[in-house]
C-alpha cells in the first residue's frame, strides 16, 4: 500500500506518458478527487504544458447529481483546471442500469477526450475497487485458484476503449483510506454516493464485508488478482504466438488454422487462441465460454467436422480448419451510416459521395459470380466467406461488378477484432495485436504506460 507522502504523485504517475494530455474522470467522490489533485500536482512539476481536462458525467439518475458536478467544477476553477460536465441524456433502461450507465460514461468520456485531441483517460479505481471486483467475480464463478477464470485478474491497469483511447487506472495499487487521508490533510471534501452503501446492490455488500478489520481478506484478493494477471498476460502471449504460427487468412472473412495447432502441447493457449478467433470471425463481443471452447477443441482433435460456435462455422477438412461467419442472422439491407460497426465485424466509413447508400451482405448468389483464384483453399469456402461480407446495394445490383473483393466504392469496411473492439484490457494486448495483423484491422495505439508487456 502506498502512503500519501510528498512523492506519492510521482510514484503514481511517473510511468505514464502525458505528452498528449489527459482526461481525468472525476465523479466528485474521494478517489477521483484525490486522483485529480495528485495528477495536477504531478503535471505542474513534470509536464506543465500537458493538457489536463477534468470531466464529470452527470448520469441524471440521482437527485443531487447536477450539484455534485457543479462542486467538481468549482474545485477545478479554484485550482485552475479545465472542467467539463457531460450529461447522459439518453433513454435509461429499466434493467441493467449500472451496465448501461457505465457504457454511457465511457462513451461520453471518450467523446470529451476526442474533442480535445486527447488519447488518454485516467480513472480513480483503487485497490479497494480491485479487491471488490475480484471477490464478486470469484463469488459468481467460484473459481478461486482457478487461473483459467480470466476475470480473476480483475481490472487491467490500462484498457483501450474503441480501439482509440487508453483508459489508465493509476490508483489500482492504492487504498481508498490513503487517498481519503490525503484529501483530509489538504482540507478537501468529497461527495458520498449513497448507492455505494446501498446493500441491495452486490458491490456495496462486498464492500461492507471488506470494511473494518478485514484487511487480510482484501490483501488475499489483491494477491490473487496480481497472480491471475500475470498468468492471463502469459496466456495471451502464448495464444498470440500460436495465432502467428498457425493462423492465416486466405480470403476476407475466411481464417485458416493449420491442424498442427491441435498438437502443440499447449492446449490452454490453443483453446484461448481458438476462442478469440471464433469471436472475431463471428463478430461477437464476448468469447465463447471456456467449456464450449474446450469441447470444440476436443472434437477437432478427434477429426474432421463441421460445427458452429459464436456465429462461426468451423469446418475441418483435409485442406485445414476453416473459420467463417455463418450465413444465418446477417444484417438485412440498411442505409449505411458513417463510422459504425456492421455485424460486429466491419468498421464502415463512408466516402463523401455515399449519401443514400444501402449496405447488405453480398449473398451466396452474387458470391458465386465472383471469379476467385482459390489456390489451395477450397473455392466453395472462399465464396461462402465472401457471401457474408458487406457490399453496397448499388454495387450488388450492378452486374458488371463481379471481380475481386465485394466491398466496392462508396464505403470502406475495415475488419475489427470483435471481442476487443470496445474494451481491450492490457492483459489481452498480445492476442489482439496478433489477430489485428491476421485480419487486417488497424494497428493499436501505443500503450501510454510502461511496465506491461504487450508482446
Ligand atoms: N459520474 C462520473 N463522472 C466521471 N467519472 C466517473 C463517474 N463515475 C465514476 N467515474 C470514474 O470511474 C471511477 C470508478 O467509479 P466508481 O463508481 O467506483 O467511483 P465513485 O464511487 O463514483 O467515485 P470515486 O471513485 O471518485 O470515489 C471513478 O474513480 C472515476 O474516475
Automatic annotation (TrEMBL):
EC number: 6.3.4.19
SUPFAM superfamilies reported in the protein's UniProt record: Adenine nucleotide alpha hydrolases-like (SSF52402)
Gene3D superfamilies: HUPs
Keyword Cytoplasm: yes
Record carries keyword Ribosomal protein: no
Enzyme class: ligase
Limits of the tRNA(Ile)-lysidine/2-thiocytidine synthase N-terminal domain: 23-208
Recorded superkingdom: Bacteria
InterPro entries: Rossmann-like_a/b/a_fold, TilS/TtcA_N, tRNA_Ile_lys_synt, tRNA_Ile_lys_synt_N
Subcellular location: Cytoplasm
Main location: cytoplasm
Reactions listed under catalytic activity: cytidine(34) in tRNA(Ile2) + L-lysine + ATP = lysidine(34) in tRNA(Ile2) + AMP + diphosphate + H(+)
Entry keyword set: ATP-binding, Cytoplasm, Ligase, Nucleotide-binding, tRNA processing
Binding residues for ATP: 27-32
Gene Ontology MF annotations: tRNA(Ile)-lysidine synthase activity
Known role: Ligates lysine onto the cytidine present at position 34 of the AUA codon-specific tRNA(Ile) that contains the anticodon CAU, in an ATP-dependent manner. Cytidine is converted to lysidine, thus changing the amino acid specificity of the tRNA from methionine to isoleucine.
HAMAP family per record: tRNA_Ile_lys_synt
Domain commentary: The N-terminal region contains the highly conserved SGGXDS motif, predicted to be a P-loop motif involved in ATP binding.
Family affiliation: Belongs to the tRNA(Ile)-lysidine synthase family.
The protein's name in its UniProt record: tRNA(Ile)-lysidine synthase
Organism from which the protein derives: Mesorhizobium opportunistum
Amino acid at each position: 500500500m502506498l502512503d500519501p507522502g510528498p512523492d506519492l504523485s510521482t510514484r503514481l504517475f511517473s510511468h505514464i506518458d502525458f505528452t498528449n494530455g489527459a482526461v481525468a474522470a472525476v465523479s466528485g467522490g474521494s478517489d477521483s478527487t484525490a486522483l485529480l489533485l495528485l495528477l495536477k500536482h504531478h503535471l505542474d512539476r513534470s509536464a506543465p504544458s500537458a493538457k489536463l481536462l477534468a470531466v464529470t458525467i452527470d448520469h441524471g439518475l440521482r437527485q443531487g447529481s447536477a450539484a455534485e458536478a457543479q462542486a467538481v467544477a468549482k474545485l477545478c476553477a479554484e485550482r485552475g483546471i479545465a472542467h467539463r460536465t457531460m450529461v447522459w441524456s439518453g433513454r435509461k433502461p429499466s434493467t441493467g442500469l449500472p451496465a448501461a450507465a457505465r457504457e454511457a460514461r465511457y462513451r461520453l468520456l471518450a467523446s470529451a477526450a476526442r474533442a480535445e485531441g486527447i488519447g488518454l483517460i485516467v480513472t480513480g479505481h483503487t485497490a479497494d475497487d480491485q479487491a471488490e471486483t475480484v471477490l464478486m467475480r470469484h463469488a459468481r464463478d467460484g473459481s478461486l485458484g482457478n487461473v483459467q477464470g480470466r476475470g480473476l485478474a480483475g481490472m487491467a491497469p490500462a484498457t483501450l476503449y474503441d480501439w482509440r483511447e487508453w483508459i489508465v487506472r493509476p490508483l489500482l495499487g492504492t487504498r481508498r483510506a490513503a487517498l481519503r487521508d490525503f484529501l483530509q490533510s489538504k482540507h478537501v471534501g468529497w461527495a458520498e454516493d449513497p448507492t455505494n452503501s446501498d446493500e441491495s446492490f452486490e458491490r456495496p455488500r462486498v464492500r461492507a464485508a471488506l470494511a473494518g478489520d478485514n484487511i487480510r481478506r482484501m490483501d488475499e484478493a489483491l494477491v490473487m488478482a496480481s497472480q491471475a494477471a500475470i498468468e492471463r498476460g502469459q496466456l495471451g502471449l502464448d495464444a498470440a504466438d500460436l495465432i502467428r504460427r498457425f493462423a492465416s487468412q486466405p480470403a476476407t472473412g475466411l481464417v485458416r488454422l493449420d491442424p498442427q495447432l491441435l498438437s502443440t502441447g499447449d492446449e490452454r493457449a490453443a483453446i484461448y487462441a481458438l476462442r478469440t478467433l471464433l469471436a472475431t470471425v463471428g463478430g461477437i463481443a464476448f468469447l465463447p465460454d471456456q467449456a464450449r471452447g474446450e469441447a470444440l477443441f476436443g472434437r477437432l482433435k478427434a477429426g474432421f467436422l463441421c460445427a458452429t460456435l459464436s456465429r462461426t462455422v468451423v469446418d475441418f477438412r483435409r485442406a485445414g480448419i476453416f473459420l467463417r461467419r455463418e450465413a444465418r442472422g446477417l444484417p438485412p439491407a440498411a442505409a449505411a451510416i458513417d463510422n459504425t460497426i456492421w455485424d460486429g465485424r466491419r468498421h464502415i466509413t463512408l466516402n463523401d459521395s455515399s449519401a443514400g447508400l444501402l449496405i447488405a451482405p453480398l449473398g451466396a448468389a452474387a458470391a458465386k459470380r465472383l471469379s476467385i483464384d482459390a489456390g489451395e483453399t477450397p473455392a466453395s469456402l472462399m465464396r461462402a466467406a465472401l457471401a457474408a461480407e458487406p457490399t453496397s446495394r448499388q454495387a450488388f445490383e450492378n452486374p458488371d461488378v463481379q471481380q475481386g473483393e465485394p466491398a466496392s466504392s462508396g464505403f470502406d469496411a475495415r475488419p475489427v477484432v470483435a471481442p476487443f473492439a470496445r474494451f481491450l484490457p492490457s492483459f489481452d494486448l498480445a492476442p489482439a495485436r496478433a489477430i489485428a495483423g491476421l485480419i487486417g484491422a488497424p494497428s493499436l495505439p501505443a500503450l501510454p504506460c510502461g511496465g506491461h508487456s504487450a508482446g
